């Protein structure tokens, strides 16, 4: 007789434990999907075998005598998982304080088996574009050798490939994947945006053949997702290209997981489970002795610190493959512009450069990390800013719709004619959005074709492809955009990049805002001069001495890092601590606040005063859906205590459950926003 601990296919926290069943079937193994009788009436349910044991004692959850123990009905081979996946799921449960089922669910296509029908393959139109370079550069070759030696030896090692923009990192990725395939292993290639998967797949299809690739991201249809999943699981596709959820691909024998642009915030999930992609990747790779490869021109402070601590090996690519020098970055002090009587959004330097660039037949990218027309609408008499009544967030004026829009819940409101507070008619607009930049560009350069790339302009993938195609083809002369333009775009004829207001990201109330500013300015600057002429970058700001901007100007990553890490240490911020945000959501405000307050007291007791951890009092939070009430507490937890703290929090959530308190509790470790 064998005993199986089973995770039930059910969302409820009430069934969140392992249930032990008997089986005579010697073929049943961890990861199998099985049918079982469940509950008082032995209703047939599905579940996954978490682990198998042959001796009664070792069964984990069996406070049930063997003669009463129920028997597995049979194996359901529609969506089989693996032992490694079950191990990873168990680890995720602990790390993120979520249910077993929330973890397992990540690894299977949503909604179960799709309806019958013809198998469909996403990206049918792609033929694959790839030209193998004649030779790798010396730096590229050295990187490939170093990473390759770990792959060939089957050593679990982690690498951070710090390569300036256009240094040919993708070529290194492909060589490393080649090595894995040659050894019969598989590979996962992740990019930070769904939009970037298309470019990557196109290149990979040219190099590895479309039939060996599968795609994983959240915008696939259910059918596509199911079919891709099956192709991966059957071993037909040995390379998965995807956005962050690709890390859950049901591959076996994973040789390498690559995260391109590893610093991007999108690698952190914003819905439960709020996992860090790199953590899940590492866990999976440890099982298979695979290699982790992170790539970036602007590594995250956390990853770079891990290099200093020997957790990752640092590999640098300092030269662009074609030796084009990095762009020349000029910082313009906008206070001087005001003094000189220039009230427009273009500084004199930017205006002049735009003119020269257009005359030279080159293209321009203007970056402004805020969509809409104006980011604030406020009363000049009493200073009241118009806010979304549901979310409490400042409304953004969108000229195209002539509406005040909430960027959190998406609600649109008519622009008030008078101030709701004092009745004054002096309503003013502040802050520059992309619509306003577009308007100015059209006004000052009427002969140049202007286009805009932001979430308002891009409703579907087709919109994105159309805008990018027009720019790539040279039809568009000036492209204005939010961070969508900062990432990964490889255009050869961009002579000038203008950052309209670097202060937008500097002033976000988040401990990462300086890091984020450095990254954005460096990344967007990297769009200039990718051909054979050196590009120009002009950064407009009211804080010209800020160290992030100065470091970006001098292409000095190390200098930026040294300042930033000192500050993080001084302030007790990650990576020196973990910030745990505990959210409480309820239809009743008092319930949410009450639960949050109770949790604070509970945690203070659990942790004890001698511990350095700090539990901050509950704060009201903006709710994403703009419906229920949300309160959160923030806990700064010392390095190494994270699991312990999450264990306490899990205990607390059991209390809420037992007392049937109608409040949803969830955790976010090192959240990207506390709004
Ligand atoms: P990044 O480091 O910015 O990711 P990519 O890998 O996208 O850079 O490379 C930028 C361009 O350089 C690509 O068009 C690629 O084909 C080309 N490239 C990369 N390595 C070489 C090389 N060794 N010789 C010639 N061209 C190369
Ligand atoms: Zn007013
Ligand atoms: Zn709102």
The end-to-end span amounts to 53 Å
**Total beta strands:** 28
Largest sheet: 7 strands, parallel
Helix count, DSSP H or I runs of 4 or more residues: 18
Strand content: 15-25%
Low-confidence stretches: none
Choose one word for the global shape.
globular
Name the ligand types.
adenosine-5'-diphosphate, zinc ion
Indicate the percent of residues in helices. Answer: 25-40%
Instruction: Provide mean pLDDT, rounded.
Output: 89
Q: Which oligomerization state do the chains in this entry correspond to?
A: single chain
Radius of gyration: 27 Å
Structural class, please? alpha/beta
The largest sheet has its strands arranged as 8-9-7-10-11-6-12
Topology:
Elements (H helix, E strand, L loop, with lengths): L1 E7 L9 E6 L9 E6 L4 E11 L20 E2 L7 H14 L3 H6 L32 H16 L4 E6 L5 H14 L3 E5 L3 H15 L4 E4 L5 H12 L5 E4 L11 E7 L16 H12 L2 E6 L4 H8 L4 E5 L10 E6 H6 L8 H12 L3 E5 L8 E4 L16 E3 L4 E3 L6 E3 L12 E4 L3 H11 L5 E4 L7 H12 L5 E4 L12 E6 L3 H4 L6 H13 L10 E6 L5 H7 L3 H15 L5 E10 L2 H19 L6 E2 L3 E3 L7 E10 L3 H17 L5 E6 L6
Parallel strand pairs: 6-11, 6-12, 7-9, 7-10, 8-9, 10-11, 13-23, 14-21, 14-22, 20-21, 22-23
Antiparallel strand pairs: 1-2, 1-4, 3-4, 3-5, 15-19, 16-17, 17-18, 24-27, 24-28, 25-27, 26-27
Helix pairs in contact: 1-7, 3-4, 14-15, 15-16, 17-18
One zinc ion binds next to loops.
